[in-house]
Amino acid sequence: QVSPALRTPRVPVWLCSVSGRHSVLFGTDSRLLSHWRSERVFRLFLYRGQRERPRTARVTIDTHSHPWEEARGEGPGQRRPGLEMAIRTRWAGATVSWDGTEPLC
């Protein structure tokens, strides 16, 4: 039998498969599940557990960014990492900052 905590997680958790790489994207703030105001600026953690190189990254998501801020530094032909595009399926138009780390996906 599945525990109720597994059916209804206490913190937001997403299992991701981007470009054939599996990872877990999760937050530590339980308010993200119940308070829409918490979705303004928040942090999520990405864990990609590969045998050869397990890695963790922290991303900051701003759902109320301005379009001119997002366009800054993005030239023609540049592509966003797959995980950023996956995050934008939930929060359209959000700005994703990798907090000084190299994008994992």
Plain-language structure description:
- It catalyses: Thiol-dependent hydrolysis of ester, thioester, amide, peptide and isopeptide bonds formed by the C-terminal Gly of ubiquitin (a 76-residue protein attached to proteins as an intracellular targeting signal).
- Its EC number is 3.4.19.12.
- With 105 residues, this protein is α+β, with helices and mostly antiparallel strands.
- The chain has one domain (4-97).
- The chain contains three helices and five strands; from the N terminus they run H-E-E-E-E-H-H-E.
- It has helices at 4-7, 67-71, 82-90, and strands at residues 13-18, 21-26, 41-48, 55-62, 95-97.
- It has a five-stranded antiparallel beta sheet with strand order 1-2-3-4-5, covered by helices on one side.
- A hairpin with a 6-residue loop joins strand 3 (41-48) and strand 4 (55-62).
- It starts with a helix and ends in an 8-residue tail after the last strand.
- The model has no long low-confidence stretch (mean pLDDT 78).
